[in-house]
Design goal:
The structure holds four protein chains of four kinds. By secondary structure, chain A is mostly helical. Chain A has helices at residues 21-56, 58-65, 70-96, 99-129, 145-182, 191-216. Chain A has a single domain, classed as Cytochrome c oxidase, subunit III, four-helix bundle (Four Helix Bundle (Hemerythrin (Met), subunit A)), CATH 1.20.120. Chain A is built from six helices and no strands. A five-stranded mixed β-sheet of chain B has the order 3-2-1-5-8, covered by helices on one side. In chain B, strands 4-10-9-6-7 form a five-stranded mixed β-sheet. Chain B has two domains: 1-37 and 63-209, Cupredoxins -  blue copper proteins (Immunoglobulin-like), CATH 2.60.40; 212-306, Cytochrome c-like domain (Cytochrome Bc1 Complex, Chain D, domain 2, Orthogonal Bundle). Chain C has helices at 8-29, 35-56, 64-90. In chain C, 33% of the residues are buried. By secondary structure, chain C is an all-alpha fold. In chain C, helix 1 packs antiparallel against helix 2 (35-56). Chain C folds into two domains: 1-62; 63-97. Chain D has a single domain, classed as Cytochrome C Oxidase, Chain A. Chain D has 16 helices and no strands. In chain D, helix 2 (29-57) runs antiparallel to helix 16 and helix 3 (68-87) runs antiparallel to helix 5. The radius of gyration of chain D is 23 Å and the shape is globular. The chains are: A mainly alpha, B alpha+beta, C mainly alpha, D mainly alpha. At the B-D interface, helix 1, helix 2, strand 7 and strand 9 of B face helix 3, helix 6, helix 9, helix 10 and helix 11 of D.
Chain lengths: 222, 313, 97, 540
């Protein structure tokens, strides 16, 4: 092991208990990946509930999923994939130390995230108007009245949790933008951008699975 | 001296006890073996001087394989024996005396086919297989009779069947074994196993207001089910005569056997599984009929089983 | 990891494939292929997710440990869904009690 | 052991800064471990007080001490406090936090700030649950089965659910911290197979923490959503299935019992190795048994639901898998016992706790076979047999291991030795009190006394009175260590860096260790428990 750099003051962003910057970057990246494992299982619980009830009530789930607006869903998917692209390009810019492009792509990612949440908000408003929110005010065709409530409970729970993760991601992007702006992020020390990139891509992957499961099932029936 | 072992009063109890004693034997053997070795080694190899260290032994593959394979074999024996007894518990014999059980927050309600109703007390004949068809009106309860070694959760929204065959007359305690609220420990009762002759006299003596099926027939008229479900296949609903137990072709192409659960679900959620050739126009009776009334209707439809099944159009 | 910098055009090609897959999965949904619909929808979603993981999240170029962590999360999710479904798929045959 | 290092070093982590701020804002893993020690002990005695009340109430058949309602709240809070606020955090957060960096020769955990943040989350979660306790309690049982917890219960389900949800993140983040630290920050020469077995079990526990806890988080969220927004996940009135809640709940809660017992197994491996001054028999087998338990632990949760209405075939699958998970535990027990063969077996208190652990855990594990055998489980599940089974593993196992670990590393934590005679007496009292409390419950269980019963038929009274008597002895047994350990801080003899003559990096640094643990990063060249290791401080 080469004689470690004893005083850590001149190496920007290196915490006292790590020996080298490489060790710290590997540790933080592994830490984020382990955190993403917990997120996979966190959403995994919801996917299990979805799988069980869809296998029990296919008819009700297909009928209820028809009430969702597929065009808005598709647009939202495209918006989120584009934000994943801009995030990847932001990480790319950080790797090359191009501060201006990094700021542009971070802003683009935030903008696209905002668009996604806006569309989602509109869809929620549409559900309130149509009385598709489970509970006393719920209205649905008599045939699937009981089981459709399970679908919409799942819909609100899954997309609600996903939207919450988007909001958290938006907050992280703001902090990253601020750090990139005031120069904490440099050519040597850009792992925070990489870490937030991993988080953002994960939130995109969750939506990649939510979209077909909630919007596309039984679409062909009518 | 307090009892240290429960009585065994059902055919299943002796088989469970045999498995229990086998497990006790294994546990006693390995428990004493480990405890004995620890005490023996602690005494024999007690540290004499402060600087003494142990022998440099790192391990022995043969021992490792031994104490992995042997426990594995023992557990597989346990698994197979346990599974066979479990299968016997899960599958009631063909001919059984059916009794309906409704668990409700903190009481047990029983309904015999001939109309007798009992609360927290169940009279059954000895020597005959009894099948309990149970459901709950509110939360999850659990029908547990220690002397019969039977226990099964009673779940709202679903029929759960339990069966036993009493071997010894007597009064056996009934517990609710799934936590269900304040009076969970008060939700107890007794199962009275009687000689068949005594059971008949008890049956006769009860102030029966007509059999469950007859109550079901009356309800069938009151709720105007007969306007759609007519025996001459001219009604808008499927013919119910001779339906129970048969397989039904559904609109979606699947087939399902018309058992208690299917009848109950078709009353509460008619559109879920519509019979082929019919429209989902039957209104739901969710909240209009109580669990007891549901049981009466199910029993009535079962009683139509004997009639020939008229070909529906 | 930090040393490995991908050329920009890889990102754009992956992005193109992802958008194409999205368009594809929506179109497929409008044809009645029976059970095949679900398999196609989930299959395409898995393909898209794999692309994002490998290229956007650099797992293709990072250590085996990262790949093991990703595989681990998928395996545990499978345990949760599969073992729960062993109950629901066979419950119609016979439940205890 | 009159060795030359018998003095307290001038500068160590305890006098490296004074005042509340130096503790509440510390990032030193050793101080955070002591913060956890305080929190864990507080919640242990809150949960323990409830246990005593329950046992007193159960001394009489009609249960005269408290009403039905209060009894239900007592056993619920006893369960919640003990499971989520003592057993799960105890060994990993207290001993794990203190020892993981030192044992691998690192200066600190990978994410010190995250470590402090985890402690604050743990305390905030605890406050929510204490608020629920003082403002009326919750009566759903620690398992909060639906539809009772979502529809029927009118007590503080939401605050308790929130408390559990928040504290869950503390174990997730601590698990994450340990995994990254063990992977990325081992000293040069410290290969995976030179690591102490305690670290293998902490690593396996962290895996379960990280992979299991998120599922209880989403389950608690679903219950809260169902109560607040009337969503219908588990509500039979809209076609939901209450058994699905049990699937999601037990997917975490069974691995959680391995989160509770695995660290204790790690501590026992250390104690047996130090107690016999001999490498643990079959080191790789014991190490991989920890990982085996962690993985297989996730496949067996269905054995909690054999009578809950799950399908016969899934019950058989879970039964056979439950037998497989028993094998690694058996391998560990056999290896510990074999380690004592031809060892220099010492009778010091920590080693007594370890031998007690092995014996009692064996009984706990074997009674687990009764519950895995489907046919017997039908009779004994939800009765006092199950209560006795898991208390033999939790109290006979985890708490014995925890006390053994605290006594073993106390000289390293405080630099002082506790009173050996008093410690042996209290260990004896705990052993007797424990067995008297829980062995009669096996008999009660097979007799058919259901669990969570406030009143019971009179012919169960004698066994219940025995159990209540044992509980009071056990309660006293747990108070004594508090006294002499605190007393040793002031008057205990100086310990020196290696009072037990054990092998391990933590015994090569001073007691108490400096803030950065080692003067400079150690180079490891010896095997895990090799008593001929060249480390200068070792006595031999």
């Amino acid at each position: 092991m080469p004689e470690a750099v004893r005083d850590h003051s001149h190496v920007p962003g290196l915490a006292h208990h790590f020996d080298t910057l490489d060790q710290q970057t590997e540790a933080t990246t592994l830490g984020m990946w382990v955190f993403l494992v917990t997120e996979v299982l966190f959403f995994g619980g919801l996917f299990t509930v979805y799988t069980v009830y869809r296998s029990w009530y296919p008819g009700a789930f297909a009928a209820a999923s028809h009430e969702l607006d597929i065009t808005l869903g598709t647009i939202n998917t495209a918006v989120l994939i584009t934000s994943s692209l801009t995030m990847a390009l932001a990480v790319h810019a950080a790797q090359l130390g191009e501060r201006r492009t990094l700021l542009i792509f971070l802003a683009a990612t935030m903008l696209l995230g905002g668009v996604f949440l806006g569309i989602k908000g509109f869809e929620y408003y549409h559900k309130f108007v149509e009385h598709h929110v489970p509970g006393s005010s719920f209205q649905f065709e008599q045939e699937y009245f009981r089981h459709a409530q399970i679908f919409f409970s799942l819909y609100f729970m899954m997309t609600g949790l996903h939207a919450l993760h988007m909001v958290i991601g938006f907050g992280i992007m703001l902090v990253m933008f601020w750090w990139a702006w005031k120069g904490t992020i440099t050519l040597e020390y850009y792992s925070p951008i990489e870490i937030s990139g991993l988080y953002w891509h994960f939130v995109d992957i969750v939506w990649i699975f939510l979209f077909p499961l909630l919007y596309l099932i039984g679409r062909h029936a009518h | 001296m307090p009892p240290l072992f429960p009585d065994a009063a059902s055919t299943m109890a002796t088989r469970v006890d045999a498995l229990y004693f086998f497990l006790l034997a294994i546990s006693a053997f390995f428990g004493l073996l480990i405890a004995g070795l620890i005490v023996y080694f602690a005494l024999k190899f007690h540290r004499r001087t402060a600087e003494q260290i142990g022998a440099r032994i790192h391990g022995a593959m043969s021992l490792e394989i031994g104490w992995t394979v042997i426990p594995l074999m023992i557990t597989m024996v346990l698994f197979v024996w346990g599974a066979s007894v479990y299968f016997a518990m899960a599958y009631p014999p063909e001919e059984t005396l059916n009794i309906y059980v409704v668990g409700k927050q903190w009481m047990w309600k029983f309904q015999h086919l001939d109309g007798q109703r009992e609360i927290n007390e169940l009279h059954v004949p000895v020597g005959r297989a009894v099948k309990l068809i149970t459901t709950s009106e509110d939360v999850i309860h659990d029908f547990f009779v220690p002397a019969f070694r039977i226990k099964a959760d009673v779940i709202p929204g679903r029929y759960v069947t339990i069966w036993f065959q009493a071997t010894k007359p007597g009064r056996y305690r009934l517990f609710c074994a799934e936590y269900c609220g304040t009076k969970h420990s008060g939700m107890i009762g007794e199962v009275v196993a009687m000689e068949p002759s005594e059971y008949q006299t008890w049956l006769g003596g009860g102030a029966a207001e007509g059999s469950l099926a007859s109550a079901g027939a009356k309800l069938f008229q009151d709720l105007a089910c007969n306007t759609c479900h007519r025996p001459d296949a001219q009604g808008r609903g499927p013919v119910l005569e001779g339906l129970f137990g048969k397989t039904v072709m559904l609109q979606s192409g699947e087939t399902v056997t018309a058992d208690e659960a299917y009848v109950r679900e078709s009353i509460l959620q008619p559109a879920a599984r519509v019979t082929a050739g019919f429209q989902p126009i039957m209104p739901t009776f969710q909240g209009l009929v109580t669990e007891e009334q549901l049981l009466e209707l199910v029993e009535y439809i079962k009683s139509l089983q004997a009639l020939p099944q008229v070909q529906t159009r | 990891m930090s040393a490995h910098i991908l050329p920009k055009r890889i990102y754009y090609t992956i992005y193109g494939i992802l958008i194409l897959c999205t368009f594809l999965t929506v179109q497929i949904a409008f044809f009645d292929l029976g059970p095949l619909n679900t398999i196609a929808a989930i299959g395409i979603a898995i393909l898209k997710a794999t692309l994002v993981i490998l290229y956007f999240m650099h797992v293709k170029y990072s250590s085996r440990l990262t790949a093991a962590v990703v595989a681990g999360s998928v395996f545990w999710l499978a345990i949760l869904v599969a073992l729960t479904m062993t109950d629901y798929l066979t419950r119609a045959w016979r439940t205890f009690g | 052991m009159a060795s030359s290092t018998l003095l307290i070093p001038p500068r160590h982590y305890l006098n490296d800064g004074y005042g509340i701020k130096s503790w509440l804002l510390t990032r030193d893993h050793k101080r955070i471990a002591l913060l956890y020690l305080a929190g864990v002990t507080l919640f242990f005695f809150v949960g323990g007080a409830m246990a005593v009340l329950i046992r007193i109430d159960l001394a009489t058949p009609p249960g005269d001490l408290v009403t039905d309602e209060t009894y239900n709240k007592l056993f619920t809070m006893h369960g919640v406090m003990m499971v989520f606020f003592f057993l799960i955090p105890a060994i990993p957060a207290v001993l794990g936090n203190f020892l993981v960096p030192i044992m691998i020769g690192a200066k600190d955990l990978a994410f010190p700030k995250l470590n402090l943040f985890s402690w604050y989350i743990y305390i905030v979660g605890g406050l929510f649950t204490l608020y629920a306790l003082v403002s009326g309690g919750v009566d759903t049982g620690w398992t909060f089965y639906t539809p009772f917890s979502t529809v029927a219960s009118t007590t503080n389900v939401i605050p308790t659910a929130l408390g559990i949800f928040i504290t869950g993140f503390s174990s997730i983040l601590t698990g994450l911290n340990f995994i990254v630290t063990i992977h990325r920050m081992r000293a040069p020469g410290m290969t995976w197979f030179r690591m102490p077995l305690f670290l293998w079990s902490i690593y396996a526990t962290s895996l379960i923490n990280v992979l299991g806890t998120p599922v209880i988080a989403i389950t608690v969220l679903l219950v809260a959503a169902e109560r607040i927004f009337h969503f219908g996940f588990f509500d039979p009135r809209v076609g939901g299935d209450p058994v699905l809640f049990q699937h999601l709940f037990w997917f975490y809660s069974h691995p959680a019992v391995y989160i509770m017992v695995l660290p204790a197994m790690g501590v026992v491996s250390e104690l047996v190795a130090a107690g016999c001054r001999k490498p643990v028999f079959g080191y790789p087998f014991v190490a991989f048994a920890s990982l085996g338990i962690a993985v297989l632990g996730f496949l067996v949760w269905g054995h909690h639901m054999f009578v809950a209405g799950e399908s016969v075939y899934s019950a058989l699958i879970f039964s056979i898998l439950s037998f497989l998970v028993a094998i690694p535990s058996a391998v560990k027990v056999f290896n510990w016992t074999a380690t004592m063969f031809k060892g220099a077996v010492s009778w010091e208190t920590p080693m007594l706790y370890a031998y007690g652990f092995i014996g009692l855990f064996t009984i706990g594990g074997l009674t687990g076979l009764f519950l895995a055998t489907v046919a017997v489980d039908v009779h004994v599940t939800d009765t006092y047999f199950v209560i006795a089974h898991f208390h033999y593993i939790m109290v006979g196992g985890t708490i014995m291991g925890y006390l053994g670990g605290v006594h073993y590393w106390w000289p390293k934590i405080s630099g002082r030795l506790y009173n050996e005679a008093l410690a042996k007496i209290s260990a004896g009292i705990i052993f007797i009190g424990f067995n008297l409390t829980f062995f009669p419950q096996f008999v009660l269980g097979y007799l058919g006394m259901p669990r969570r019963y406030h009143a019971y038929p009179p012919d169960f009274q004698v066994l219940n009175v025995l159990s209540s008597a044992g509980a009071s002895i056990l309660g006293v047994g747990y108070l004594i260590p508090m006294i002499y350990l605190m007393w040793s801080l002031r008057y205990g003899r100086l310990a020196g860096s290696n009072p037990w003559g054990a092998v391990g990096l933590e015994w090569t640094t001073t007691s108490p260790p400096p803030t950065e643990n080692f003067a400079e990063t150690p180079l490891v060249t010896w095997d895990a428990y090799d008593c001929h290791a060249p480390s200068e401080s070792h006595v031999a």
